[in-house]
Structure formats: structure tokens, C-alpha cells
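Sequence in, structure out. Go.
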Amino acid sequence: MPEEELVELKFRLYDGSDIGPFRYSPASTVAMLKERIVTEWPKDKKIAPKAANDIKIINAGKILENNKTVSQCKAPFGDLPKGVITMHVVVQPSIVKAKTEKKVDDPPRRNFCACSIL
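Output:
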């Protein structure tokens, strides 16, 4: 039985640094990639995901779905030589956190009455 050909991926972060490259089976899911990214995330970054759901992976201009496999997400490159595929990672905080945080830039509201006394 032939050995499955592994796909080499690296993940480009918001500041231009990379995580990887790592080798993955074509049957690995995007959810598995996200879990690995969270565990390998550099500790010195100001922005960091708390969970895999805080990450979006983009390849060839498309946001990859968690249930898709690496082989389904790989953009066809024709007869290009084999090499490392770079995927972009975006950290998007969960919606619950974003709704509960108070905006620091907003000044406090004051109620003024525009009444004139004669």
C-alpha cells in the first residue's frame, strides 16, 4: 500500500512571522490545524487566540471551513514543484467577548436639559 504523501504547511501571522512549517496528512481537518496553531502560538505576541474558534485560516483568498480536509482546501497549482504552502491566520475574538467589553474611547454620557428659564 503506498504511503500517503504529506502536505507541508506554514501559517503566516498578522505581524509577518510564521508558525511552522509542519507536515500534515491530506486527511487532516482544518479544525486540527487550528488546534495545532493555538498550541504553537508564540508566547511573546500581544494578540493571541484563546481557543481554536478564535482563528480563521485563509488560503488562496478563501476562509477555510473546520470540517474540510487539507486535500479539499489545497489550491491547485498545476505542475509547480512541491514546496511549503503558506496559509494566513487571522485572530478574531469571540463575539461574546466583543459585546461585553466597554469601549475605552467613548466619553461618559451626560444628560443635559436644553430648557431655558425665563
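Check: Strands lie at 7-12, 18-24, 55-59, 62-63, 85-91. Residues 94 and 100 are 10 Å apart (CA to CA).
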